[in-house]
Amino acid sequence: MTKDETAIRNIIADQAKALYAKNADLLFAHHAAEFFSYDLDPPLLHRDSAPGAKAGTEAWFATWKGPIGWDARDVAVTVGGDVAFTTSLVHLTGTKTDGAEQSVWFRNTSGYRKENGEWKIVHSHSSVPFYMDGSVKAAVDLRP
Description:
alpha+beta, globular
């Protein structure tokens, strides 16, 4: 494993730690200044620079009773110079404040750029497939 791949895998590990601890500062620490994401929740586009981005994340954390599990599987890291991307299947788990147990798998692709010798996440895209049977329902019951 190269030094760059190790650094990027450490960022992924920090994301899992940040979610488990519900620590928005650690979650945002590896984001580039112009980070944006296509995430599972509305709106269609999220930007860290948007007013209230961190507060919105902290509000989401407050909807969880305890730690949030975030297990990235089948992580593939591709590095080319000062840019890289990762792909993975992610298992999000935990208990909501209303007692509902959550367990959903989704796909994640993230883009990275090396800035001043340090890898930063510039973009993240998470998605779930949907059923093509006309129902257009999210296929959150799938498992790898």
